[in-house]
Amino acid sequence: MAQEIEKKFLVIGNDFKKEAFESSKIIQGYLSSVPERTVRIRIRDQSGFITIKGIGNQSGASRFEWEKEMPLNEAEALIKLCEPGVIDKTRYKVKTNGGTFEVDEFHGENNGLVVAEIELANENDAFDRPNWIGKELTGDKKYYNAMLMKSPFSKW
Amino acid sequence: MAQEIEKKFLVIGNDFKKEAFESSKIIQGYLSSVPERTVRIRIRDQSGFITIKGIGNQSGASRFEWEKEMPLNEAEALIKLCEPGVIDKTRYKVKTNGGTFEVDEFHGENNGLVVAEIELANENDAFDRPNWIGKELTGDKKYYNAMLMKSPFSKW
């Protein structure tokens, strides 16, 4: 349970893949995609997670977050209850001075979209931006995963 | 994680209180009150719980259910994220031949409403009905707690 501070950016090109030290496959659905109270079920590799997020502050960088791990079979059963549509993506991790970028390469209906997020202790903490980091998307609800499920990138 | 089989009844009078072997105070809110995927946060005495339920079968007696306990402070934080309105009730437990009735006496906007539920291993299992058990409400969505929050008994 924490107040999560994250900044999100568009990613340009594929160079980030050369710098990644880890990648994993993510499938996720939403029991609630209402921004004030999203309830997400995620399968990452062979583990399941439930994550509840509140709405962000004015800048969109800080959101309340609660997460618990669960067995894979429970997550698979809960994914079936989710709202129609599912997010399918590969997550890469890239170290930079000041933190670690999580870079999400979307598949399926969001194919072509790649975004990077960095978690910070304080909203104004400094961090290095690799040259594949594009414009900032922090707080832009269109890029929330819950929104990408309903209004996918391929239909923009 | 289970398929839950429950029958629900209206309760007549206050005689059930004399037969109860336990009672506890329950406060609960909903992160999602959509019947296909309700997400409930409950505080019972000093414990927190998250419970996810799917929609029932045709008779309404069998619903998918997933539940996890959590610390009280986490449940208190999550209740604040819930949809407006909260259910406040006292739950009594009453043993009968064939099972245990959970009798919910509602307060606040649902004051005056008392319902009893019994959990069964099979939908057609027999059980004794005390004389304070009134008409069957199984599957009647109006009596779902998630619905009582939006459309409380005092406004029927």
TrEMBL record, chains A, B:
<dbReference type="InterPro" id="IPR033469">
    <property type="entry name" value="CYTH-like_dom_sf"/>
</dbReference>
<dbReference type="InterPro" id="IPR012042">
    <property type="entry name" value="NeuTTM/CthTTM-like"/>
</dbReference>
<feature type="active site" description="Proton acceptor">
    <location>
        <position position="30"/>
    </location>
</feature>
<dbReference type="Pfam" id="PF01928">
    <property type="entry name" value="CYTH"/>
</dbReference>
<dbReference type="InterPro" id="IPR023577">
    <property type="entry name" value="CYTH_domain"/>
</dbReference>
<feature type="domain" description="CYTH">
    <location>
        <begin position="2"/>
        <end position="150"/>
    </location>
</feature>
<protein>
    <submittedName>
        <fullName>CYTH domain-containing protein</fullName>
    </submittedName>
</protein>
